[in-house]
Please model this.
Amino acid sequence: MVNYEILAHEEVAADAKYIVLAGKIAAVPGQFLQVRISETNDPLLRRPLSVHDCHENSFSLLYRIAGRGTAMLAQKKTGDNLNILGPLGKGFPHTTLPTALLVAGGIGVAPLFYLARCLAEKGKKVVFLFGARQAEALYRRRELAEIVSELHLATDNGSTGLHGPVTELLESFWEYQVKFEIYACGPALMLQEISRLAAGHDRDVHVSLETQLACGVGACLGCVVADRTQPGKYFRVCSEGPVFNSKVVF
Amino acid sequence: MSKPDLNVNIGKMKLKNPVMPASGCFGYGEEYASYFDLSRLGAIVVKGTTREPWPGNLPPRLAETSAGLLNAIGLQNPGAVEALAKIRTLAHYGVPVILNVAGHSADDYCEVIKFFAEEKAVEAFELNVSCPNLTAGGMAFGTDPEIVYRLTSRAKQLTDKTLIVKLSPNVTDIAAVALAAERGGADAVSLINTLLGMAIDISKKEPVLANVTGGLSGPAVKPVALRMVWQVSAAVDIPVIGMGGICCAADALEFILAGASAVAIGTALFTNPLTCLQAIDGITAYLEENVVATVKEIVGLARKNQAQKREENQCGKS
Model:
């Protein structure tokens, strides 16, 4: 548990904020932080937020204001401190392939942004498919465009990019002649659909899951998801995830 | 003045301080070993363990409430064999390990005790007759004094180790259940387990927890837990381990002053993994400030003070 000073805290959409913290953390893409919202007992639990980006002396978080805890977090000001436990969990696995396909739905961009930058810095070709309900929820897409090789957008209401689900953007890539790694983060239904489509082409997807957490360190067994390969077995999302091979969780 | 003496005895166990993690919130210790030095704990209380592995309940298993947390884990655990391997790795901390024992039937509990009876790695058993997330065993046992008496007696015959009975708050008269445990041969009672509760998701229009109901813990339950520790410690002669919403040294001291010989910290660990250590340090500082040599001297002190006050008031009236 360390306190980090807030260097910047900006609105990126009406329902999402971007926060930059001073300090160094040894996080790999896909790991998360347990952020303490209040010094009081309410809200009681920390909020798990993905590492959105990480630099030498600072790191950032991108979050959607989804409830009371994140609404309280949104009130924090530059110069305030945030108490953080982590980095926690296992991140996205490395790839030996030269190309990576990243698929984000809405706030699912949060951990994939850091992954995209790390992969790009390693010289990989990063193709990023980004879908959301409307253009405004394609959070930080301009910054993303600067780091990826290709950015393809989709919105449910057609306000930007393809008019339809992000999974439709995937279609053209199955015929791709080069092998590529697939990483995804977004709503459970989107991940499920990507996993289903990928399985149809005999492909795996590294999916980052979101569930309610309590301890964040693997002790309480509150955040589990079923292991589809072993009936009656569960994975702890916080410590055995949050990134899983789609075949074992969907 | 020398450092205050924090030693307490629970049955045959000698604890160097009265603070331990609560079962179910601490796994088998390994998850928190990288956050603090486990050797500083008074005892380590490990996850509720059954003879065979239990899968636990379907998710969602958690619902946060105002200053509280509902859980319906359903005692997911790897079973006695794997649990033993994990517990053995704790030996080098030199801290007594208390094994929380669970099952669906009296025989289930006895099987676990038999399995660990000769194991040096375990110093005490805590009979979990209070888990609210089971259809059989757990709380179904702990709400009936006669069943608690019979199960405690049976367990007592199987082991010389310290036997603790963990009580459910979901009863009208918790002292009656505590007395049944004492009569059955328990060396101590621990309380409270979680309070039965539930939450509903108004957008989905269905219960949040897959199990529908769950156990409420955290600061929200502290006044209830404290009241029950007060009542039970008045009723029994065996030590009481108090728990329920303890988040800091001041909370722990309330339980000790109410009559708890030791305290356990659970849900607070999720927010602050260092809560146990901070409580130990805070209790030490409190004893120093109040010029008290041993923590034992303040166990139940609030009751003694209250009794004295009542006596004085009565003298004043007559």
Remarks:
- The longest strand of chain B covers residues 44-49.
- Chain B has a mean pLDDT of 96.
- Chain B touches chain A through 33 residues (CB under 8 Å).
- The first helix of chain B runs from residue 80 to 88.
